[in-house]
Structure formats: structure tokens, C-alpha cells
Amino acid sequence: DNQIAESDSETENSKEEEEAKSAEPAKQDSNDNVPLIERIPADAGAVILIKVNELLEKGREDIAALLPPGLPPMVDKALKDPTSLGVDVSEPLQIHMIPQEDVSLAPTGGIAGKLSDNEKFMNTIELLAGLEKPAEKNGYFLYAPLGKSEPQIAVGPDFFFAGFADKPKDKEPSIDQFMTADGSDAIIKKQKTFTAFAKETNDIGIWFGGDSILETLSNQIDNANLDTMKGGSGTLTLNFENGEMIGQGKFDAPNNEMVYGKGGFSDKILSFSPSDAILSLGLALDLQKFIKYAEKEILPEFGDDIKLDEPVDELGGLSIRDAINAFTGEFLISLTDVKMPDPSSMGGFPGGPGGPNDGGNPFGGTEGDIPFPAPG
Questions:
Q1: How far is the C-alpha of 11 from the C-alpha of 277, rounded, in Å?
Q2: Phi and psi for 370 in degrees, rounded to 5?
Q3: Could you tell me the pLDDT band of residue 44, with boundaries at 50, 70 and 90?
Q4: Cα 308 to chain center, whole Å?
Q5: Tens of pLDDT along 237-268?
Q6: How does DSSP assign 315-361, residue by residue?
Q7: CB distance 49 to 198 below 8 Å
Q8: Per the confidence metrics, is the pTM higher than 0.70?
Q9: Strand-pair partners of 50
């Protein structure tokens, strides 16, 4: 009997040891170490990445000058050292939006960022927003919502998430999905165009894609039909360098029939852009392909009034197609300076036309000294 009892005791001890060992991997498999970018779900229709550290390094003083007076001293301190608020700006601040099945509703989603010290961050937001102490839920802290339309803040070991939703009841499920994500359903693992976008180094980048986001936009923009763009995705980027702001837009069409861009500019046309331009705007177009589309979809709306292949006297006998073929499809506008005309050169201004000294000339000045050609 003693031997049996000892055997049973050893069996129970071995079971306890196995249970303890089986519990260890579960602790190691905690979702706390999942990167923020891998917490964004695959059904997100738009993602914004903001490299706060780059923006602060490039324009900290300019940003400070834009802030209104009377802000708490900690705001200025945070601009100089974000870690003073417990925030870690070494990784981009990210915003994602998930369209609703009901396209009349605003998307769910939220804002997420890394933390250097979650206790310091929590103390800061409790002080600034007057928040009560948070509740613990599924391994993270969740604050009570400030209001029906206000974001609700959750704080993990080294990151925060402020979730929003059109319907208040959708906030907590959306927040919990993000806070407990294991990365298996991440958009970065399932959407190739987003994966490529996330690898780029932009100060501010916006990715959008998915049919649901297009349906939402169609519903919110008057007379907009974006059905032909379904299946595609696009990016908008802003970068600041040496006092310049460079913005780029790109759309990956769902099929080759919709591709009218060349994908970039040739060195030849770029050589014409002045180095002191304060604004440059360009378009690189596959012109011949666009003309085929116009002949099929646009010109029939005008009836037989426009014929591309008939000679036109105003074009010296050339046809409209001949004139179009003179272009390479690359167009570039550069603005180097903006100057208002000198009022004195306009004749009679600021007295204006009909003034006492203009001699009745509607163009200013006196007869025989008209600064513009006479009408006709």
C-alpha cells in the first residue's frame, strides 16, 4: 500500500511538473511582443504612418512656432524630448481605418504608438484629460471612454491604442482585437502593396486599398462612382527635405486596361525644371493609350463634332491626332517666383478706371499712352 501511495504521489508530482512546463511556453507566446505594424488587421482599408522623429528633427522649431500660446509647459518639453511623456517616437505613429459593411457608417480603427514608459504615459494622460484610473482587461489597461464620439484609450506594456468607432458599442471589440492581436491576420502579411509601402521611408505615408473603402468613399462623395477602381490600391506620401516638401501619389490599377501612367519622368524633361522652382507639378502619361480610351469612352459623347484624323486649318493642315503625337505625354509646370504687378505700371491705379486723371480711358493713363493694346 505504501508503494502504491508513493507511486500515486510521484504521478501527481510529474503531472504538476508537466503542467508547469506546458504553462511556460504559453507565457513566452504572449502577444505583448507583436510589432505594432502586425496588429493592423487584414480588413483595414486605409493606413497612415507618421515618422514623428523625422518630422521633429527636420522642423522642431517650425512646429513649435505653429502652436497657440498658453499651452502647458509640458507641451514644449515634449517637443524637445518626447520620452518626457513616456512616448517612444523611434517607430512611426500609425492610424488605421476599417470600413463598415454599412457604407453609410464611419470606419472603425484607431491611433497607435510606441511607449518608452507606460506608467509615465498613463500619468500624463490622466492629468491632461482628467481620466479615472483604468480597468485591467486581457493583459492591458482600458480607460473609460471620454464620450460617445471620442476615442477610447488602451495601454499595453510598451504601446498605446486610441480606438474609435461610429457606434459606441463597437469600440471595445475593435480595441480588444488590436490589443490582443497575434499577427496572424495582419494586413502586412496578406496585402503585397501594403507590405511594399510599409518598407518605404516616408515622413508621412498614406496607403489605401480594398473594395470596401472605395464603397465608403463613393457613398460620401457626391456623384462619385469608383467601381472601376475596385481591386486596386494607392499611396500618397509627403517628405520634407532641405526646406522642400515633396508630395507623390500613386495608384496601382486593378487591371492593365486602367494603366495610363508611365510610372515616372524621363531625365530629358526633368532637365528643363529650374533648380530654384518653388513649386513643380507634373504628369507622365501614356498618351496613345489614353487617346484610345478617349476615342472609345469620351468622344462619342460629342457626336461627330470631333474627328481626330481630319486636317484642321487652325493647325496648319495637321490633324488633331498629328498635334497630339507631337507630345511625349510628359507635362511639367514649374513656378519660380510670384510677383504682384506694380500698381503704377497699370496707369491710374489706385485711382482706378474713371478716376479724375485718367482722361476717361478705361485702361488707365491718358490717350496715346495706353499700357495695353486697344480692344480688337
A1: 82
A2: -85, 125
A3: very high
A4: 40
A5: 999 987 788 888 887 777 666 677 877 888 88
A6: GTT-BHHHHHHTS-SEEEEEE----PPPGGGGSSTTT-TT-TTSTT-
A7: yes
A8: no
A9: 93, 204
